[in-house]
Design brief:
The chain is mainly beta and 337 residues long. Among the domains are: 83-179, Sandwich (Immunoglobulin-like); 189-254, SH3 type barrels. Helices cover 12% and strands 33% of the residues. It contains three helices and 18 strands. Strands 2, 4, 5, 7, 8 and 9 form a six-stranded mixed β-sheet that branches. It is elongated and about 110 Å long. The relative contact order is 0.09.
């Protein structure tokens, strides 16, 4: 017994919860160190997956950065020249009759010689022009194409030029509308009345009023005058109304021109020779009558309105209505403001 305790054999040593096991029996053996390192924690598979993904993302980023810096060429990978391409004809939103030839005029300039000018319709090449050699001294090229549309509809026209080095440039797109020719076929379009208006027996205010259209009423337009100022509607047995009274829902170009039917004059009965009229003296203005004279007449609102200033040149006061006559214009074209 040492220090007041009984001596206990090594084989009987134990912890409070479990018996003590001697692990030093194999100490010094070759397998001891192998077992030690084999028992260390293994790396997780997701660690290698993360490393691989990071490498892929980094490679993509470097590739995109290089493409952004080096991508100064055009669609063919060529170095772009300084181009300018303009379509002078037709103009944007122009209406072109289907089936009829029309001209497409193009101008192009470049810092180097142009080898090819290509016409495109709706993104497809349809014709081309090869400039003659030598190139113009100012490097300004002009080309014209003759083309036609077989069917009505919306079309987009563009021109692509190619230089001798292979650089290309596409012009801005010009949108046009092809419509079907009317000819002699009866064609009608729809419209809506914007304000209550009287229908006339002919195209003009001088014709008899033969009915009325109410605001918001739908009408069918079947004809127009040559200047498109009056429309022939189907309502009321084909009557005429002013163009400004109808809001058209389709193109007026589809409507044929209609000439009004002349109304024969009714002959007045004659009962014999009429006495020759004798001239009567013009009335003489009284001493207190006003003296009116137009002093100024100007066009306003872009020519849509005529503003006339009438002055009383006398000292006599005037109170009443005043009638102004304007010569040289057709009937019904002027209204009182």
């Amino acid at each position: 017994m040492i220090g007041g305790r009984g001596e206990v054999a090594e084989d009987d040593w134990e912890y409070e919860d479990e018996p003590y096991e001697d692990d030093y029996d194999d100490y010094g053996d070759d397998d001891y160190y192998d077992d030690y390192y084999d028992s260390s924690p293994a790396r997780q598979p997701m660690f290698y997956v993360f490393i691989a993904l990071a490498a892929i993302v980094g490679g993509i980023f470097i590739f995109l950065l290089y493409s952004l810096v080096a991508g100064n060429g055009d669609e063919d990978g060529k170095t772009a020249a300084d181009f300018k391409v303009v379509i002078d004809q037709p103009i944007a939103n122009e209406r072109i009759e289907a089936g009829k030839d029309f001209t497409i005029a193009v101008r192009a300039t470049a810092t180097e010689a142009i080898a090819l000018i290509e016409l495109q319709v709706n993104g497809e090449p349809v014709d081309q022009y090869v400039p003659k050699s030598p190139p113009p001294s100012d490097l300004i090229y002009a080309a014209t194409f003759s083309w036609h549309f077989n069917n009505k509809g919306e079309y987009k026209i563009a021109v692509k030029v190619t230089s001798e080095t292979g650089a290309t440039k596409l012009s801005d797109t010009v949108s046009v509308t092809a419509f079907e020719g009317v000819g002699d076929r009866p064609v009608s379009i729809t419209g809506k009345v914007v304000a209550t208006v009287s229908m006339r027996a002919g195209p003009g205010e001088s014709y008899e009023a033969v009915g009325r259209l109410n605001a918001g009423q739908q009408v069918k337009v079947i004809g127009k005058t040559r200047d498109s100022e009056w429309l022939l509607v189907e309502e009321g047995g084909q009557r005429w109304v002013p163009r400004t009274a109808i809001e058209l829902q389709e193109s007026l170009a589809l409507v044929p021109i209609k000439e009004p039917t002349p109304v024969p004059a009714t002959p007045s009965p004659t009962t014999g020779a009429s006495p020759s009229p004798s001239p009567s003296p013009s009335p003489t203005a009284g001493p207190n009558a006003p003296d009116f004279a137009p002093t100024n007449a100007v066009l306003a609102n872009g020519g849509a309105r005529l503003r006339v200033t009438v002055a009383n040149l006398s000292t006599n006061a005037f109170n009443g209505s005043l009638v102004v006559s304007v010569a040289g214009v057709g009937p019904g074209t002027l209204t009182q403001a």
